[in-house]
Amino acid sequence: MTKRDKNRKGLLSRITLVTLVILLIMLTGCESLPFDFELPWQNATQPPDATETQPTPEASATTRSESTETPLPTPEKLILWLPPDLDPHNGTDAGDLLLEKLNSYAFANKIEIVVRIKSQTGSGSLIDSLTATKAAVPETLPDLIVLSANDLQVASQRNLIYENERLTGMLGGNDWYPFASQLSQVDEEVLAIALMADPLTLIYSSTNLLIPSNEWDQIHNNFGIFGFAADDPLGRFLLLLYMSAGGDVIDGQGYALLEEEPLVAALQALKNALNTRHINSLSLSYQNDAQVFQSFLDRNLDTAVVPASYVLSHTDENSNQPDAMMTEPEFTLATGSAWALGNPDIARQELAMDLLEELMQTEFLANWTEALHKLPSRPSALGAWTEPNLKPALEKVAMAAVIYPPGAVLNQLGPILRNATLLILRDGGDVVETARLAVESVK
Fold it and tell me: The domain 77-197+335-383: what is its CATH number?
């Protein structure tokens, strides 16, 4: 057989094969064959167009990913949870300032801001509500929430608040008091932005010719009669004396702690004031700061220990009441509160952070905290206060303020410190023996 005959036979075979395939498709009415079958033209290569760049498979995937990725939708609503004293609808100057700020932000960003007031104590408290909401209706979680220092610790332990890089960024720089860094972090992680604090202060009348000492262990050398809440269930003044003497309240494992040497020094300061008859016997019946401050206003006390907010919120309605001034200690204890993120949704967090940045701007923070009678977390804000007489002392107090220990520690040590205080002042107890018993009482 010649080469030409072979080629003709091969061509006829291919034509016959293609004809059979076409007939099969027509007879079955199928769109594709029910088996794999390689047609002669499937392996033919087509030359690429010289003007067209063929993307690699990787480039094609990237291009498709970028084209299908859509930005997160902008939230139409922000939810704020606030304690009762920050209620923007309570009719106070502070409430009016916050309401105006929130309305302005909502209008500018075309969103709705919902404010819900939550009690910080009792059943249905803020933490309880936050826990229940996360479990049952997470879509109604608060975007911004104001928490006390203790609630901040609890919320972190229960994973109820969320970190965000912008929180860490906001806390950078020098325009923060030392207590702000302590209040904003849990286990060295930034989980909040400190808002304000209320420190313990030693007050005296502006008409006093003798200004009291700035040292807590020198109260026995001050002029006149001294008073504090000796029957305070949490023993806060003795705790202040103890910690100012260098005492620690938490050991390396996180358990409550009392050290004997600084506790002896603290109890001795009380004993010295008792021996010099400097402490008013009424102090033994005082259980809270309101009783102490009222006694000062009634001129039963020449010096007294109360939170700064009592002085800042007092109005001179009675000209016979003393005008309080403050000493400038190197150490004091304070309560505090901070802003935190309560919603894990990233888009909502971003919008909430934008609002938080506006709420922490110097001018607004200054006006708001002055109206609230609490110390702002930023020196620039306190510097913008209009208060002329107390501001120099407040600036020193703010630098000296340390946030109280966690609630669990305070609740454990408080009754022990209260009993030690009363043993010294009421029962004439021995300082060293009372300290020993107190240290042994910590379990």
Answer: 3.40.190.10
